[in-house]
Amino acid sequence: MGIGDAITRFLERIGSKTIEVAERPVRRMPTGKNVQERLRALKQLQKEISIERGEAKEEEQLEEILEWHRQEIQKPFVTRLAEGLLRYFGGPVRTITGFFKGLEVDLYRANMMMSKEQYVALMLVVAILAGLFGIAFAYLLYLPVDTSLLIGVLSFLGAFIYMRQYPRMVWRKRVSEVERAMPYALRHMASLLRAGVGISEAILSVASADYGPISEEFELILRDMRTGSSFEDAISKFEEKMASENVSRVVKQILRAIKFGGNLSDILYKLAEDFSFEYRMKLIEYVQKINGIAFVYMFLTIVMPTMLVVGIIAGSIMSRTLIMPVESLATILWLAFPAISLIIVNMIKKGEPR
Questions:
Q1: 195-219 burial, b for 16+ CB within 10 Å, e for fewer?
Q2: Nearest-CA neighbor of 131 among 118, 107, 149?
Q3: Global confidence as pTM
Q4: Rounded CA gap, 301 and 339, in Å?
């Protein structure tokens, strides 16, 4: 009975293979009674093959077009406008780019992967949109035409200057985030080095962790090393990019320990403790400053508006007429004091220890 089952399964496998082969489209060599019929059949076969290849090529081109459209849709609208401006007005944009010295370095430090020309085109697009918005806003307020144009020009210049400073702002923010995560990353590396892991593997572990920009920068260090740069060149490039005193201290200590020998794990632990202690001291100083600023903030945002309203009401009662128009009072209460509040909050935010 077992031999019969085995034979049956063997025949079933042969049958399934036969059906599979029979279902495949197979082109046979052309046959015919004479040479001319065979040539005609061969030409027909070549025509069918070329048609199938053409359809496959069209499908591949269609997939490429769809993929390109998907990538374009994912880009921000302003970025697409900038690329269009650079495409049609490349000459004037490149001429303007020549006036901005150091822009390429700022983009590199901010980790903004675009050329100088692309960013200048983006600056122009944002400035033009800001200018048009300023004109439209002034028009809705029924301001005179010359005033509206002036507001548009000022909006254009303000947006253009802001966009020029934007890479530096991004770079400073990245540096502060790198310095903030530095103690944790150094402890991470030190623990791995103490366990016998190499420096490259320790950097790879930090790059794979979630330490923010410092993980991204360590990934760039590893990428430079994979492309042929030495460890010293790659980490020195990181130091130059950050242009931070704390980062320079770490890089110099690592290079010194590698060159002259030393317990690198203990050095990194010590640096992490030093950075943590410095941050705690800065935080204590910051809290002491906030206590004084908080009193000034409450006085300017709560006490002064109340005193102003009470003083105007009392003066108006005594003189039996309004000593300040209602529009002016509303402007001061709704614009002046909130603007002062925003300035104070910005000062508090900027003074926060990094």
A1: eeeebeebbbbbbeeebebbbebbe
A2: 149
A3: 0.66
A4: 10
